[in-house]
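hey all, quick one before standup. I had two proteins in the batch that finished overnight and I want to keep them in one place so we stop losing track of which output belongs to which input. First protein below, input sequence then structure tokens straight from the run.
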Amino acid sequence: MMAVSNCTPPMKFVTLIVIGYFLTILNAEPALGEKGSQGLRQILLRRRVKRATDCTEGFITKDMTDNTLLPAIYPTEQLDACLNNSVLLANLTELGHIAFSRDQLLVLKRKLDGLYTSGLPEERIQQLGFIITVYGPEEISMWNITNADTLALVLRNSPNLNTTKAIIANYLQRSGPLNATALDAIGGPLLCTLREENLRTIFPGELKKAKPLNISTCTQAKKDILFGIAKVAFQDLAGDPKAYFNKLKPYIGGAQVSDLQSLAVGNINMDFETFSRLNPVEVEKLTAENIRDLLGINLNSLKENENHEIVRRWVNTHSVAEVMSLGIGLRGGISPAGLGNLSISPLPGSASVSSYSLLLSTCITVFGIALQYHS
């Protein structure tokens, strides 16, 4: 019998056929037209990209996700190639606390965006850690932050003021409560940027549980709101004037004259720093006796700070006699009719300043009455 010849071509021959095929396509590229040429280039490019992004460092496992050296072991491309979505989701908290570079964080963000095309659920937002730093305000505005704990966790890693404001705005738009946790996370200066209607939602009990807030940058209207809440929050301490006053201190800028008069009788010895934070309009309504009772042993601080705006405003709205009745050497005040503005220095000698002040104020008052009578 005639032997059947093996028709399988030799390997070298097959290789030559493949090479020839690709050379034919490449040579024919101009004839394919622009679309055909682009399609061919895209195919070849995808093949090159696929080869470039193959995981060569070994896939990342659960046991590796808390390794602080991970950013050095897995450069950006390898992190992308070697981190499976399942490992990312199961260990997001651990990965979110690793100091990856911005490009590496963008890899994690891109993977999350692909998994949650409708936006991150709140439980995932809580786990972001440093990954929050690569999200922009517009993206954050699409989140659903309703829990104060989530707010606190996200604010802790906020990279800038714009991001912080976007986070807080998102929380408030979702009716997140301004409870103690939220107040501690937001802090006084940012609280002052919120709308007045937001501040009115704070429950006294939550303000009481929160850390003291610095509201010095608030408008007067906002200070008034926060002081009103603080009064209710610490009302149980009203029987102990000093303890009550110490709790009200951070919010004292919103106190009305009636509040200050009530505090004055409690022997609280208000320091000048606190006094300087009071609403000047309300301070102007205080009598010299109120001032004396309010500052107590710190009364001389008014003389030491006589050029401070709040001191000058009080002096300029009270009579010379009342200013001098404080007995601390303050000058100025409204003089009796027809006398003009007077500035009187304490007399020398052994008598106390208070004695001379009282004598002079009496003389000035009598002189003013006499002038009015003769006129």
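OK second protein, same deal, sequence then tokens:
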Amino acid sequence: MAAEPQPKALTRKPLLLNKVEGSQDVVNMAAIVPKEDGVISVSEDRTVRVWLKRDSGQYWPSIYHAMPSHQSRVMMVLFVLEMEWLLSTGQDKHFTWHCSESGQRLGGYRTSAGACGLQFDVETRHVFVGDHSGQVTILKLEQESCSLVTTFKGHTGGVTALCWDPIQRVLFSGSSDHSIIMWDIGGRKGTAIELQGHNDKVQSLSYAHHTRQLISCGADGGIVVWNMDVERQETPEWLDSDSCQKCDQPFFWNFKQMWDSKKIGLRQHHCRKCGKAVCGKCSSKRSSIPLMGFEFEVRVCDSCHESITDEERAPTATFHDSKHNIVHVHFDATRGWLLTSGTDKVIKLWDMTPVVS
């Protein structure tokens, strides 16, 4: 199967500032220490390390700590300064939160599958947990208890990353199905916008609030910067039909119409723009539809292809190669730095100001 074509990247690109090497195991997540030349990393062996920049310009581990509260791999850790809480999820299907001052375990919740997506809204004390079943669970946290608010699902694969915009009250979820969904939580309209820009599973998401740009990284090594300050459109639901909704030719399971018309049934496809069920002959063209999230060319029916203008084909994202299989990212908006950690046990620090500004 041929690889999908990559959209052309702009000439501006991130600048690699530094590499942090020396972890004993795969780094599942890492974060930039605020106002310091330092990095915090969580590894596959359930250890937390703090790396500080030395006079040599290299980063070396200064603090090492094990996390015994999870019985298997720790997938995500989140520190909430306002509450003095440390939130964590793991492959053991448990979400837990601790007091960061005393280290005391405050509570926990068992998820439907191993969880690696985690976000928290300080204003409402809602926590968002995404798991490998493709489900996102919303919990309301108190000091030592939690209650289930709701669950929702839109991905065909497991949720691998979550990102929360507390200003627009929008949740972004990345998945092993290669897609990102933008959920309008605050608007209460149930709107879900799809973004398609990776050729492999989406591993991590970060959001630049000041410029309304979403940064997504994937197992394909791609760093995609999405412009979210545009009016995007929901993708249509795929329509059901026993025959092509353009030429009325029967599909291969429509035995009655095939017998009556003495015609061989055709394979069913769907136009990504209008959602109609069409045959291959009536959907021979391909087009990108960036405002619907399709940065790659996708199948569209011939009439929709003619209706899409060059302006509508203008990309709303830029594409960059990190040259490693990214597991997690963290964006420091104050400095414009992006930290990526990969399966190669390397942490890379990027200057994103050329593309996020």
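Flagging for whoever picks this up: The chain is about 5% helix and 50% strand. The longest strand covers residues 59-66.
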